[in-house]
Amino acid sequence: MLRYLLRRVGLILPVFVAVTLLSFVLIRLVPGDPIEVRAGEHGIAPERLAELRHQFGLDQPLWQQFLHYEWQVAHGDLGVSLVTRRPVAAEFFTLFPATLELGLCAMVFAVVLGLPLGVLASVRRGSALDYGLMSAAVTGASMPIFWWGLMMILLFSVTLGWTPVSGRISDLFFVPPVTGFMLIDSLYSDDDGAFRSAVSHLILPAIVLGTIPLATIARMTRSSMLEVLGEDYIRTARAKGLSGTRVVVVHALRNALIPVVTVIGLQVGTLLGGAILTETIFSWPGVGHWLIESIQRRDYPVLQGGTLLIASLVMLVNLGVDVTYGFLNPRIRR
Amino acid sequence: MKHGVIAVACAAALATLLGAATPSLAKTLVYCSEGSPENFNPMLNTTGTTFDANRPVYNRLTEFRNGSTELTPGLAESWEVTEGGKVFTFHLRHGVKWQSNADFKPTRDFNADDVMFSFERQWKDSNPYHKVSGGGYDYFSDMDFPKLLSKIEKLDDFTVRFTLTEPQAPFLADLAMDFASIQSKEYADALLAAGKPELIDQVPIGTGPFQFVQYQRDATIRFRAFKGYWGPAPKIDSLVFSITKDAAVRLAKLRAGECQIMAFPALADLPAIRADASLTLMQQPGLNIGYLAFNVQKKPFDDVRVRQALSMAIDKKAILAAVYQGAGQPAKNLIPPTMWSYNDAVQDYPFDPEAARRKLAEAGLKDGFETDLWAMPVARPYNPDAKRIGEMMQSDLAKIGVKARIVSFEWGEYRKRAQAGEPQMVQLGWTGDNGDPDNFFTPLAGCHDGKPTVSNNAKWCDAEFDDLIGRAATIADQAARTTMYERAQVIMHEQAPFFMIAHSVVFMPMRKEVTGFKMSPFGTHQFDEVDLK
Question: What residues in A contact B39, CB-CB < 8 Å?
Fold first, then answer.
C-alpha cells in the first residue's frame, strides 16, 4: 500500500510542473500586454511602459521569467497581483471559501437528487418515467450554464420574485467575514434574518452549478444499477423472497455505487470549471469570478497562481479518490 | 394524500425560511456597480470604476459641481491666480474633519500639510510614500504635472501656493479630477510608523461625505454617511456598491429591487427599461467623441482631398440609426456640443457619394484605392460596436471605389499599434476628464515640436491649429479662448484628419423611489445628494 501511495504521490510532481508550465505559456499566448491593457484611451508613454515592464520582470526573456516563477513557487510564493499588488495566495484563500461553499451545496444538491432519480429510472426501465428522466438528464448535462443561469434568474428572481438575483447575502446585511463561509458567519451574526438571506442567495447558483453533475450522476447511477440488477446475486435475493425495496437499496445500490463514487470524485473538476461561469452570472465573489477578471486584466501572477492552486486541489481530490480505491479494491494497487 | 401534506409542509417551511429575509435598516442606497476597484486611492488608478469607489470618501481642492463641468470650491475655499496664470494661491477651508476608523483617530483638522503630502507623494521621489502600492501615478503624469509644476509651497496652515512652469488655463479643472484627491498626512505618518504604509490605499480616510466601512472583494463596498462632513449632510445613511459585472444581472437586480440604481445598462435593454413602470431612465449626452482617424502620414491620406472625399462617402445617419440606436448624436466637431467653445457654425460634410467620387478624381484617384480600416475589438462608451460600424463604412466606401479591409486586434495591441501609426484608418474615441476643451484638442490632435502627441491617432500636425490650441491653453480669459477654439475647429473641419462619427448618449436606470441623482457629464457616479422616497 505504501509503495502504491508513494507511486501516486510521485506522479503528482511532474503533473505539478506541467501545470505551472502550461498555465505560464497559455496565458502568454493570449494577445495583450498586462500593462497596456490598463492604459485606456490615454495610451502610455514608452518610458513609463518600459519602467513598469521592468518592475514586473516582463522585460526578461520568457525562459528566465519561467525559471524565476518556478523558483518562487518552489519557495511557496505565488507572487503578487499586477493590479491590486496583494499576494496571490492571500487573495485566493480570501475568496476560496465562497467557491467551496457554493461547490459543496451544488454537490449536495446533485447527489441528493441524482442518486434517487437514477435508481428510479433503472427500476422503471423502459417506462415513460425512465425516458422522461433520462431526456431531462441529457438536456441537463448539455445545458450551457450561462443561458441556464440567466433563465433561472429571469424566472425565479425577476418574474416570480422567489429568490434573490445575485450575491451571497442581501447587501443590506453587514456580516463581517470570520470563517469566510457565509452560512456559518451569518448564523453567528447579530442580524435577524441574515442566515435566511444567505440560504436564499445560495439556492439558484447551487442549482445552476449542480445541474450538470446532477445529470451525470443520475445517468451513471442508472446504468450502473441496470448492470447490477442483471447480476445473479440479485436474482438470488429476489428468489429468497426479499422485498423489492430491500433488493434495490441494500443489494443493488450498494454495489452500483462504486463507479458512481468515482464519478462524483471527478465532478470536482467540473464543479470548479462550472463555478467560473456560475460565479460570473450570480456575482458570486469566489475564485472563478476572480480568475475571469484577471484574464480580462491579463494579471499573469493571479492567473498562474490561481490555476495552479485549483489544479493542486483537483489533483489532491483525485489522489484521495485513488487512495480510497486502493483501500477498497486491492487489485488496483498492483 | 400523505405526500401532498408533506409537500405543502415543505413548501411552507421554505417560504418561511426565505420570506422577508431583509433587515429593516436605516436609509440605505444600493448601487449596482460594474466592477471591483483596484484599490482605494484614486492617485494610483485611471479607471472610472475605481474613481467611483473612491469619490464618496475623498475631496479635492476644487470640485466639479454635481452633474456639471462647472468648478466650485472644495477643500480650497477660494483662490487667486497671479503672474499671468502661472501662480495659484489657495486658501483652505477651516474646520474640515478627517474621518476615522478602528485604528486611526485624527487629532487635527485638515490643513496645508495634507495638500503638500498628497501632491508630493505623486511628484517627489523623496516622499516616503512615493513608491508605496507600486507608486504609479499615471494620471498625474498624463496631465503633464511633473513638467508643469515648478514648486508647491505651504505659506501657512491654510494657504498653499502652486507655481507652474508656464501658464495653464485648465489647471483649476485639473485639480478637481480624482487623481488630485487629498489624503491625510497624519494617517500616512501613523501608518508609516506602524510599518503598514500600504493600508492608506486599502482602508481610506478622507474628508468626503461618506466614510469607508468595508470592502468585500468582488462583492460589496460599504460606506456610511460621515457625520463630520463639512458640506451638506448626505440624505442617506448608508451607501452600498453591489458589484455586479454582468449588465443583464444588474438590470435583473434593479427590477427585483435589490439595488436602486445601476451603472451601464446594455443598449438592447433600453426599451424594456423604458417599459418598466417601476424604473426611471435618465439620459444625457456624454462628454465624448467616437471618430475614424485618417493617418495623414500614410498615402493617400496625406492629401486633404482624399480625406474630404471619404468624409462625404460615409453615411453617418445610417450608422447612428443602426449602431447607436438612438443613443448617440451625429458629431461634426471633436468636442461635444455640451462643451463651451463648441463651434456650431461648422457645417458637417454632407453624405454625397457623387461629390466624393469627383473629389477623389481631383486627387488623381479616379479608380479608387485599397486601404485598411481598423475596428476596435471592444465596445466603448463612445462606440458600441466598431466592427459593425466598420462594415457599414466598408460598404459605403466600396461605392466610390475604395476597397477597405477591416482589421482588428486585441484591445491593448490595437491601441499600441494605433499609437505607433500603423493603421491607415482607425476607429477610436475619447471621454473627457475635466470639461475643458483643451482636454480634447491637445491629446487627440495636438503636436509638440512638430511631433504628434501619444493619442493623436491621425498623426496630424497643423502649425496654425497647434499655435491656437497652445495659446488657448495658457490664457485664463474664457471668451478669448473660445474664439481660438472656434477657429481651431474650422481648421480641423477643413483639414479633415478625422471623420467624426458620434457623441454617444449615456443612460442611467434607477428605481422610481430614487431622487436627487444627477448624471455627471464625465460619466462618473456620485451619491451625496441622492435620497430615497
Answer: 84-85
Q: Is B278 on the interface with A (CB under 8 A)?
A: no
Cα-trace Rg, chain A: 24
Residue A113, burial from CB neighbour count under 10 angstroms (0-12, 13-18, 19+): middle
Q: What angle do CA B425, B430, B432 make, to 5 degrees?
A: 155
Rounded distance, CA B454 to CA B447, Å?
9
Tell which residue, B281, B258, B375, B246, has the closest CA to residue B323: B375
Judge contact between A325 and A266, C-beta under 8 A: no
The verdict on B259 touching A (C-beta cutoff 8 Å) is yes
Residue in this structure with the C-alpha cell 474613481, named with its chain if needed: B51
Residues A55-102 have pLDDT tens digits of 888 888 888 988 988 888 888 888 888 888 889 999 999 899 999 999
Q: Distances from the Cα of B6 to the Cαs of A207, B3, B13, in angstroms?
A: 22, 5, 10
Of B23, B46, B218, the CB nearest to A40: B46
How many CA within 13 A on the CB side of residue B242? 33
Residues B442, B443, B447, B449: is their CA dihedral positive or negative? Answer: positive
Report the pLDDT value the prediction gives residue A36, as an integer from 0 to 100: 76
**B500 membership: H or E segment, kind and range:** strand B498-511
Nearest-CA distance B366 → chain A (Å): 36
Nearest C-alpha neighbor of B215 from the set A285, A278, A153: A285
pLDDT in tens, B376-390: 888 788 888 899 999
The question of ipTM being above 0.90 is answered as no
Determine, for residues B243 and A285 on separate chains, whether the beta-carbon distance falls below 8 Å.
Answer: yes
| A322 C-beta neighbours (distance < 10 Å), count | 18
Question: Three-state DSSP class for B107?
Answer: coil
Chain A: residue whose CA lies nearest to B201: A84
CA–CA separation, A15 and B342 (whole Å):
63
Is residue B244 within 8 Å of B250, Cβ to Cβ?
A: yes
Per-residue pLDDT reduced to its tens digit, B414-454: 888 888 899 999 999 998 888 899 999 998 999 988 888 87
End-to-end CA, chain B: 48
Residue position matching grid coordinates 484614486: B42
Q: Do A165 and B23 touch (CB under 8 A)?
A: no
Output the CA–CA distances (angstroms, integers) from residue A233 to A225, A230, A243, A247, B287, in the order listed: 13, 9, 14, 10, 79
**Mean pLDDT of all residues in B316-336:** 91
B15: pLDDT strictly greater than 60 = no
Of the candidates B59, B99, B58, B40, the residue with the CA atom closest to the CA atom of residue B217: B40
pLDDT digits (tens, 9 = 90+) for B70-114: 899 999 999 999 888 899 999 999 999 999 999 999 999 999 999
Which strand (E) or helix (H) includes residue A36?
helix A34-37
Q: Judged by CB atoms within 8 Å, which residues 361-390 of B form the interface with A?
A: 380
Distance from CA of A168 to the nearest CA of B (A): 8
Q: Count the helices and strands in chain B (H runs, E runs).
A: 17, 22
Of B314, B294, B291, B313, which is closest to residue B304 (Cα–Cα)? B294
Q: Do B134 and A293 touch (CB under 8 A)?
A: no
